[in-house]
Amino acid sequence: MTTPPRRLVVAVNPAAASGRWTAACDRIVGRLRAGGHHVELLRAADWAALHAMAVAAVADGPRGRPDALVVVGGDGMVHLGVNVVPRTGVALGVVPTGSGNDTARALGLPRGDPDGAVDTLLVALDRGPTVADAGRATAADGSRTWFLGALSAGFDALVNERANHLRWPPGRSRYVRALLVELLWLRRIRYRLEIDGTRTDTDAALVCVANGPSIGGGMRVTPDALLDDALFDVLVVQPMSRAAFLRVFPSVYRGEHLRDPRVRVVRATRVRVDADGVVGYADGERVGPLPLDLELVPGAVALLAPPSAPALTGRH
Asked: Which strands form 263-268's sheet, in the order they lie side by side?
């Protein structure tokens, strides 16, 4: 190792704190310590408690801030991290052990391979972090939520809500099962959108405001989105029949759904999304009911990522 020892805070998904992931987490921490780094391990009974611990751990205290917060888990843990580190100077590292791992895909991190992910992390600590953008959602009550991947508001959010309550099957198959169930109630939604100051009222099946390229465990909804281009990719899918939806759906894993004329993407820095009875989800986590005001904040997050990360240009 050519870098001096780093102070690292490692936060572990509460759901992964037992069973086979206990040994994996101990191994992750052990390897980071063997690399010469000082590691503080955070575990808690639930997400809210772990978030509070992480906020306290990266606060500027007598020893200063740690160099990095490393989250172990899936996109929910990335969401926790990105709601702790923006504008703190603390880098965010990811060891993906979740079911969706869309952020890991965007960063080109090994998935389901903790040792490989730690190897990548150690190299990234050596070369330094890469600057990325993040989205910030403001609710009607003034509360704010950061997100790194995408904010879903429509059919895709309903699928997220159902998938989060399913225990089987694992991985992206759970998302597909939830999608097929929600398809039975597929309906058009009347949206009130404001995109970079231009107001539009439109019927759509879903609206997704994305900073990264995929959701739902590899569904490339906005395949050209980059994490450091200072722009959202705003996906709007016009209403379509169940049969048409099922024809288009398989192509989303290849990003080829954009060929359909009922699917469009526009780029923007500020988006207001409003619709009656619709809840927004960011990085697969529930944010709250619409309306939500979304702002793209350039350079908000420092990421520990490989130099060849697919969704990073590395220009910053």
From this structure: 263-268, 232-237, 206-210, 150-154, 279-282, 285-289
Q: In which region does residue 36 sit, left (phi positive, over 0), alpha (psi from -120 to 50) or beta (all else)?
A: left
Residue 19, judged by CB atoms within 10 A of its CB (0-12, 13-18, 19+), counts as exposed
For 7, phi then psi, to 5°, come to -90, 120
Residue with more model confidence, 262 or 170:
262
pTM: 0.90
